[in-house]
Structures are given as C-alpha cells and as structure tokens.
Write a structure and sequence with these properties.
By secondary structure, this protein is mostly beta strands. Helix content is 15%, strand content 56%. The chain is built from three helices and ten strands; from the N terminus they run βααββββαβββββ. It has a ten-stranded antiparallel sheet. A hairpin with a 5-residue loop joins β7 and β8.
Length: 135
C-alpha cells in the first residue's frame, strides 16, 4: 500500500540543480534565479487523485493528476514545453515519466520519516531535493 503524501513540506536542501536546469536548456538568467529559490511543497493526496503544489517567492507550479492516467502536462511556466506525463506508484515511490523533447525526463517522490525526497531527472542530470513535513 503506497503512503499518503498529504502535507505541507518546507525546503531543506538540494544537490545538482544547476546541472538539471542546464539539461532542460534553461537560460542562464533563469538558472541563477532558480538556484536562489527555496520552494515548499504542498500535497493533497486523496486516493488516486493528487495535487502537488510547488510554492516559491518567484513562481508557483500546480500539478493535478490521477495516478496511472496519462495526460498532457503544460510546463511552459517551467521551460516553455508541453509533454505527455504519467504518474504511477513503484512500491512506496511516486514516479513521474514525462515524454517530450527532453529525454529521460521525470521525477520521483518518496518519504523517509518526516522528510519528503524529490529526485528530478533530465537527460543524464539528476537533482535531489529534500523537504521536511511541517503539517
């Protein structure tokens, strides 16, 4: 049984974000801004329906989906692209595959205690972010 990810999580740390942003071909100015951000995550997990909000002082991104159902994701706010996305469970990890212009693009979320981990991939870049549950 997958865990329920509902909660509010505050940013703790990240590794390798610049390489990830370069793999997405994000311009230098936006990369510099993104590297300064410390986004929070708010997740509402009701059965197979999920809403994942990434909240920052610069931009917010809201992703709403049904687990196991492919959909078109509009990532223009992130990198100017759209892609076909599917989110599924692999054991206790929520795994997203984003098919489009950028190969090997996606992410995975998992819990360890009160920490939420997020691994972002694009091309051969891998970025890890860690968040702490506060409510």
């Amino acid at each position: 049984m997958p865990p329920n990810l509902t909660g509010y999580y505050c940013f703790v740390s990240q590794k390798n974000m610049e390489d990830y942003l370069q793999a997405l071909n994000i311009n230098v100015a936006l990369r510099k801004i993104a590297l300064l951000l410390k986004p929070d995550k708010e997740i509402d997990h009701q059965g197979n329906h999920m809403t994942v909000k990434t909240l920052s002082t610069f931009r917010n991104y809201i992703l709403e989906f049904e687990v196991g159902v492919e959909f078109e994701e509009d990532l223009r706010i992130v990198d100017g692209r759209k892609c076909q996305t599917i989110v599924t469970w692999e054991e206790e990890q929520l795994v997203c595959v984003q098919k489009g212009e950028v190969p090997n693009r996606g992410w995975r979320h998992w819990l360890e205690g009160d920490k939420l981990y997020l691994e972002l991939t694009a091309r051969d870049a891998v970025c890890e972010q860690v968040f702490r549950k506060v409510k």
